[in-house]
Amino acid sequence: MSDTSRLPEARLGELIDSLVTQGWYVGPSFLPAPLCSTLHAELDDMTERDALIAAGIGRGDNHHLRRDVRGDAIRWLDRESQAQRRYLEAMGDLQRALNQALFLGLFEYEAHFAHYPPGAFYRRHLDSFRGRANRVVSTVGYLTPDWPSDGGGEMVIYSPDDDREVARVRPEAGTFVCFLAETIPHEVLPTRLPRASIAGWFRRNASLNGLIDPAS
User: Fold this and answer.
1) Is-contact 189 156, C-beta < 8 A?
2) pLDDT of 68-111, one tens digit each?
3) I need a labelling partner for 108 at 20 to 30 A (CA). Which of 72, 85, 86, 100 fits?
4) In angstroms, rounded to a whole number, what is the distance separating the alpha carbons of residues 163 and 77?
């Protein structure tokens, strides 16, 4: 894997320890700057070409649009560019590290670009329902450089035990967030500026008798 996409090995242990002790991790300057810049340009091009789709909630037959819940537009990563392949290779390294250290049995990784136009938000939610932990670990990689302090669009992370806010993350390029999908509530506050990120999930293989869980 190219050095432009390699994750900082010295900080992988920090990430893993944080997942164990508190269920979430925030790493400023975690992702390689050249990779973030290339992916940001790619997402900008998709936005200009109207190549994104409005994001919904739920999956399969339960999928529907709720602009009162979330306002981003997305496109799934499909390895069509070198930058996408490098990002997914980096996440593959993380998957192996998590499996080796925590025995999570992570089977695959899925991810999409997310573009939040000014005014967009995503209300408080969990990424996986308890008892249906096909999505085990969530990730968010931020792509927009020089995010101002008054730009809005922060991710708010809440304690799984009560309503306390435990972290507020500015969506600055290079920052990487990782958390347990079925236990850590979070939301995206309304953004004042176009906001670019990649949201992803490490999944267990919960398929049965040839049926993929969850249906996409």
Assistant:
1) yes
2) 899 999 999 999 999 999 999 999 999 999 999 999 999 999 99
3) 72
4) 33
